[in-house]
């Protein structure tokens, strides 16, 4: 049995979630996560001045997932995952953005090291790189003459 819950702060911001735990334990976890800077949409709320209430109860995980989607879509809330979200797709997009930012920062910090790594790679694989270039040029030449 899972509960679909709503957290509402004094500013009127709302967050919808689901849990198998008691609601007072779940709100404590949200507060703990916010203090530890864990990434959750509920961090946008003032969790010290909020209320938590049960919106619905589901008998199966599939039903809970559907109910959670329904409430997230029907209530104006701060949840990042909206509409017919797919958890894997959401995580893929999140990590894609996260890794872009991480790679950019890493490159800025290790610019000289990365340049040297690329230079070494090109020196070791010069023949293979040139072979691929010749193949691409030949392919482009064939495409241009076919027109």
Strand content is 15-25%
Main beta sheet: 3 strands, antiparallel
Q: What number of domains?
A: 2
Uncertain residue segments: none
Taking the alpha carbons of the first and last residues, their distance comes to 65 Å
User: Please, what is the average pLDDT?
Assistant: 88
Series of H and E elements: EEHEHHHH
CATH fold-level name of the largest domain: GIY-YIG endonuclease
The CATH architecture term of the largest domain is 3-Layer(aba) Sandwich
Number of strands: 3
Strand order of the largest sheet: 2-1-3
Assembly state: single chain
CATH class term of the largest domain? Alpha Beta
Specify the helix fraction band.
55-70%
Tally of helical segments: 5
Shape: elongated
Structural class designation: alpha+beta
Rg from C-alpha positions?
Answer: 25 Å
Explain the layout of strands and helices:
Blueprint: E1 2-9, E2 14-19, H1 23-35, E3 50-58, H2 61-74, H3 87-109, H4 111-124, H5 126-146
Please provide a written account of the structure.
This protein is 58% helix and 16% strand. The protein has two domains: 2-84, GIY-YIG endonuclease (3-Layer(aba) Sandwich); 90-146, no CATH class. By secondary structure, the chain is α+β, with helices and mostly antiparallel strands. It has a three-stranded antiparallel β-sheet.
